[in-house]
Amino acid sequence: MTVKDLVRTISKELEAGAHPGDLLDQIEDLEIEEKVELMQELSSEDASLILQEMEDFEQAEIIRHLARDRVKDILINLASDDAADVLGKLKPEEAEEVLQLIDEEEPADFGSLLKYPEESAGGIMTTEFISLPADIPAEDAIQRLREIAPEAETIYYVYVVDQEGRLIGVLSLRDLIAASDGTFLKSIMRSNVISVNAALDQEEVARIVSKYDLLAVPVVDDQERLLGIITVDDVIDVMEQEATEDIYRLAGASKVVDMELTEAPVSRVVRLRLPWLLISMVGGFISGSVISGYESTLEAIVVLAVFIPVIMDMGGNVGTQSSTIFVRGLATGEIEGAEMWPYFLREIKIGVTLGAISGALISLAAFLWQDNPYLGLVVGISMLGTITVAALIGTLVPMICNKINIDPAITAGPFVTTIKDVTGLMIYFVIATTFLEYLR
After folding, report:
1. Are residues 383 and 435 in the same domain?
2. 249 within domain boundaries
3. Do 409 and 246 meet the contact criterion of CB atoms below 8 Å apart?
4. Could you tell me if residue 62 is inside a domain?
5. In this structure, are 105 and 143 located in the same domain?
6. Same structural domain for residues 19 and 83?
7. 359-414 confidence digits (pLDDT tens)
8. Same domain, 362 and 410
9. Contact 420, 394 (CB under 8 A)
10. Rounded to 5 degrees, what are φ and ψ at 80?
């Protein structure tokens, strides 16, 4: 199928009501030149619908290759937050060049959104919202709603502002329709509005929307002036983005940006992941030196070596569980501030309980296998100590990093594993050396 045929097909399907996201499969295998030609041939409205469904890196690549006049036409048809996101992927000089082409009378004020950090509330908000004064009756508000609704991102909430543009209330579309004629908005609005400051991090915005089950949240400045709104679809994108970042960091890796993960060059992936593997390698050398330091103990009682993998694996599992749950709690806001230390003490209790149960089981297995109660005692106590310390480290390391403003997700992989391995081996061999004469 040629690009021109594809243009006709996409136009017909969009006109028939197809979702633009469902049409991406038809163009994903096209070369960049063909995609640019496609965006050039589609109507501005259709091109904007397709563009906003693409990945960020692909949007930027297409925008860079399109004629600037064409870029202007497409961006004007996007919601202000989506247009700002697209411009944010360009170099500053490229974005400025596009902004200069947009006339002041055009209904596209997304250029002002670029002054906010990309991952802040101001960076993801849209300026297409509905705000009305408090001293107009419901019937007038409904009439004005009919006039301005086509330009709004959502009409589920109507925000009430004073003469200075400060947010003073909110009402739902249902509240407005149900109100009797002659009822002023100030009589039916809710004055305790849940809002966010433009400087707030997008992850915190997602928590607020999730906590209060909002379809949209208003964004205000330091003077409580209404600047824009953040809709739930943008919040879902934020949650996906933040979850993806945390998963990569938990794995001790970094996300490959500006391209599809499956298409990233091997050299780039290796460059991103190698530093964390080197950290693990250093940890392995340290663990090896610990074993080497107790070589005489192993030579005297060779059977001790059999239990090293079991104890290390159990400690590793508990350490990973503790760090993952703690980092997840930080990310969702379940663990914060004064709740951290009680949670830390609770995690130690959990570690002791798991260690006691696992230690008793492995102690019994060692005793029945070798018919040596002291071997069972050494292995059991070591299991108890290793699992307890693993739970402590898995929580304490990311907690400390969070206190010093280092992303705790980064520490949950290589650092926790390395520290846990070294301490676990030391616990095992110190106890084994203490009871060495009873093990012979």
Report:
1. yes
2. no
3. yes
4. yes
5. no
6. yes
7. 999 999 988 888 888 888 999 999 999 999 999 988 888 888 888 877 776 666 67
8. yes
9. yes
10. -60, -40
What's CA 432's distance to the chain center, in Å?
44
Query: In terms of residue numbers, what domain contains 285?
Result: 261-439
User: Which value, to the nearest 10 degrees, does the dihedral of the CA atoms of residues 276, 277, 281, 283 take?
Assistant: 40
Quick one: 224 exposed, middle or buried, by C-beta within 10 A (0-12, 13-18, 19+)? middle
Tell me the one-letter amino acid at 83.
A
Long-range contacts of 216-219 (CB under 8 A, 24+ apart): 216/129, 216/153, 216/154, 216/156, 216/157, 218/129, 218/157, 218/159, 218/167, 218/170, 218/193, 219/121, 219/122, 219/125, 219/195
- 251 is a domain residue: no
**What is the total residue count of the chain?**
440
Fill in the DSSP letter of residue 422. Answer: H
Q: Both tokens of residue 98? A: 């596009």
DSSP-derived 3-state class of residue 157: strand
CATH code at 148? Answer: 3.10.580.10
Q: Among 115, 142, 173, where does a domain finish?
A: 115
**Any idea what DSSP says for residue 267?**
H
Q: Using an 8 Å Cβ cutoff, are 39 and 65 in contact?
A: no
CB 238 within 8 A of CB 207: no
Upper half-sphere CA count for residue 137 (Cβ side, 13 Å): 6
Cα separation, 386 vs 8, in Å, equals 66
pTM: 0.63
- Regarding whether 369 and 279 lie in a shared domain, the answer is yes
pLDDT of residue 107: 45
Q: Residue 324: phi, psi to the nearest 5?
A: -65, -45
Are 14 and 77 in a shared domain?
yes
Half-sphere exposure of 2 (CA within 13 A, CB side): 3
- Structural domains of the chain, count: 3
**Domain of residue 321, CATH code:** 1.10.357.20
Q: Which strand (E) or helix (H) includes residue 230?
A: strand 226-231
Measure the CA dihedral 196/202/205/209, to 10°.
130
CA distance 287 to 274: 20
Mean pLDDT score of the chain: 82
Distance between CA 55 and CA 258 in Å, rounded? 9
Answer whether 400's CB lies under 8 Å from 261's CB. Answer: no
Q: Which token pair is 68?
A: 């600037």
Q: Would strands 157-161 and 196-197 be described as parallel, antiparallel, or unpaired?
A: unpaired
